[in-house]
Amino acid sequence: MNKLKTVIQYECFTSFKYIWIFYGIQYACVALITAIVGISMGSFEHVGTNCLEVNSLIYVGILGVLGFHEDFKTLIQNGFTRRYIFLATLSLFAFISGIMALVDTAVGNLLHALSGNYFSVYASIYGYGNVFANWVWLFFLYLSVCSLFYLGVLVINRMGKTISLFLGVILAGIALLLAALFRFVLSGEVLSRLGKLALSAMGFMRDGSINLFFPVLTFLLATALFSLGSYAVIRRTELRG
């Protein structure tokens, strides 16, 4: 148990500073672009931005990819089991997702309160009014994205780049086949039911109400699925040079 605590602390502490580097770069870029556009137009009245969480989604996706190679090699060489490495990685994802969801929720609500023109990803879908639900929704969204990309890089490492490339081509073909199926084969009634099911999964109920628990449950189930897949793969992952 002490070894697990050690590896979790190692993962979280070594990644903590990069959060603030990311936000520093993001806000500096936003400020610079805002200043350039405002000066060029001669007015800052209609200058602004929205949905900064999209940048965070890209960051956590990169985190999911980079959360494997070097850390896995370092930890496996120092005697940590694959189970401990997996649990430590999930703890890191939860740690980073929680902090970034908190920051993005606070900044999104603050910018909206100050200007009235800023809308976050969450607010664009569900509106403002429930700060806690905003944080929980973002937390599980970020966590599911981390887990998805982590599973992807584990599969690529396990199967090799060539086989993974063929698998990617096959998956792309399946996606095109499904698109054709939805477009030309399935009836309008079936598509309508599937659309309603997707909307329900995101919290939009048939009676017009919004259930904020359902999208969180959707992201949680996705995270659990990706995590189980990652654990199944990492148990058979070998150290490569």
- Portion in beta strands: under 5%
Number of helical regions: 9
Largest sheet descriptor: none
- How many structural domains can be distinguished in the coordinates? 1
Task: Estimate percent helicity.
Answer: over 70%
User: How many beta strands in the DSSP annotation?
Assistant: 0
Rg of Cα set? 21 Å
The end-to-end span amounts to 29 Å
Structure description:
The two termini are 29 Å apart. The radius of gyration is 21 Å and the shape is globular. Helix 1 (2-41) runs parallel beside helix 4, helix 4 (82-115) packs antiparallel against helix 6 (131-159) and helix 4 packs antiparallel against helix 9 (213-234). The protein has helices at 2-41, 53-66, 69-77, 82-115, 121-126, 131-159, 161-185, 188-201, 213-234. The protein is mainly α. It has one domain (2-234).
Defining key terms:
241 residues; mainly alpha; 9 helices; 80% helix
Please give the structural blueprint:
Elements: H1 2-41, H2 53-66, H3 69-77, H4 82-115, H5 121-126, H6 131-159, H7 161-185, H8 188-201, H9 213-234
Helix pairs in contact: 1-4, 2-4, 2-6, 4-6, 4-9, 6-7, 6-9
Describe the structure concisely for a colleague.
Helices cover about 80% and strands about 0% of the residues. The protein has about 240 residues and is an all-alpha fold.
